[in-house]
Amino acid sequence: MDLAEFPEDWSSALVVVAHPDDMEYGGAAAVARWTAQGKRVDYLLASRGEAGIDGMAPDECAEVRVREQVASAAEVGVDVVEFLDHPDGMIEYGLPLRRDIARVIRRRRPEVVLVVNHRETYGGVFLNMADHRAVGQAAIDAVRDAANRWVFRELVDEGLEPWGGVRHLAVIASPDATHAVDVTESFDAGVRSLLHHRAYLDGLGPDWPEPAVFLREGAERVAERFGGRLGVSFELL
Fold it and tell me: Which stretches are transmembrane (predicted)?
């Protein structure tokens, strides 16, 4: 089935992912397109990625990966990058995570929320990470939580009124993609964004494909269902 054009009749978005680099594996090129249009895109990360590099102690790793993520986001025009400090590799779905995400949704008041793939696999090709599943599902639920005055009532006490203005909720790297964004002009920015995660990429070892190759292969797979245009796909819920 062909992929439809992702709606772009909005001005602000919040990206909710589990780790540094999650958005850069494909999605950053779409963000570069949107910020070039003058849209505001903010990032929210559930963890600092401290468990992501086997040869680096967690405290040091967290500092490095935060620094890399901030630089990576800036490459595609994102100025706001927040971290919730849930434990990398052990993020739990539950009320604390839902509340933390709902708090940021109420504060940032986005029209679009982009969440990480929350399903067990990537289309049956390989298993998804537990952190991705927990954060993706919690973010989906937090969109409704953010709109309900009587859920997480303490947020109102913090001065955060309910926000029901999320018009589009989309899943990044979904195995059931329905829409795509043309990234022909912003593809290179997406590659540069991923390259900022140098310590993480080095930790993956020499057998991991080069970012430009990996991202182009993904964008070309999307192109097969998107009129031949390099694209980033999303499932619009």
Answer: none
Give the pTM.
Answer: 0.96
The answer to whether 29 touches 215, Cβ cutoff 8 Å, is yes
How many Cα atoms sit within 13 Å of 98 on the Cβ side? 17
Cβ atoms within 10 Å of 149's Cβ, excluding its own = 11
Domains of the chain: 4-236 (3.40.50.10320)
Q: Which among 229, 231, 210 is positioned nearest to 219, based on CA atoms?
A: 231
For 55-112, what is each residue's pLDDT tens digit? 999 999 999 999 999 999 999 999 999 999 999 999 999 999 999 999 999 999 999 9
Q: Give strand pairing partners of 121.
A: 127
Q: How far apart are CA 110 and CA 105, in angstroms?
A: 7
**All residues at 6 or more sequence positions from 207 whose CB lies less than 8 Å from its CB, including other chains:** none
Q: How many CB atoms lie within 10 A of CB 126?
A: 7
